[in-house]
Amino acid sequence: MPRESRIVYSQKAKPPRPFPKRPLFWFAGIGLFLLLLAAAAYVANLPALAVTGIDVSGADAAAEEIRQSVQTMLEGKFLLLIPRKNFFAVSGNHIADELRRRFPEVASVRVDKDFPHRIIIRAEGRHLWGVYCRREGTAPPAGCAYLDTDGTAYEELERFAGWLLPVIYGPAPARLGEPTVPAGILRFFGDAQSGLAGIGAKPLTLSFSTSTPDDARLALAEGWYLLVTASRPVAEWMDTLRAVLEKEIGERRSELEYVDLRFGAKVFYKFR
Predict the structure, then answer these.
(1) In this structure, what are the phi and psi dihedrals at residue 219, rounded to the nearest 5 degrees?
(2) What digits encode the pLDDT tens for the residues 235-261?
(3) Tell me: domain 128-271, CATH 3.40.50.1260, correct?
């Protein structure tokens, strides 16, 4: 009986599988990141890089309030790691924007940093021009605020009485720190002051018609008022007013209720 043939194949030993390298790179990257983060946090918290001095100039009345406000901005930390008072974390532009928002009475703010501990703040206050009120005909006038020479409202007046300052009445409430009265209106009032001074008159208030915005009413200290067109040069209607006062009204000037100068050479007036 023939023998059954057998062929035996030897199995080659399989080499061991290498440990995957990708997780090693991930762990190494995360470790390096945490190490750098810890180093950055350590450096950021060094007292040598902390802002400790805040110098404020140019706003004497509000200097201490500005200083305290900036100190409040520098409290706490970014991402629970970097102190806000770290010299390199302080943003001069951000501080300036915040101060302009919080202090409408400040016209301009400049913030500089002096390495490694100081912030230098130069603030310029507003120059008072007069008063803006939202509504006329109430006692006292409602919704009033101080106006600067640029027509910006910057401080509310709860109780306003007397006429030591010029007053402009408008339809909208004043928004502190924002332009409220156009510069052209302020110039118009100034021109009217100069022109009326030549006839011994002083304007106290200026208001505009809601239906015809170009029609302006100037109330005078003598107790009567003028109706004029704001777009016309003051010199034009001043010549007309002077002629009417001299030739037609004369000694009855104190009895006037108003003089209407809106129609050129055709003038209307009324006595009380």
Answers:
(1) -90, 135
(2) 999 999 999 999 999 999 999 999 999
(3) no
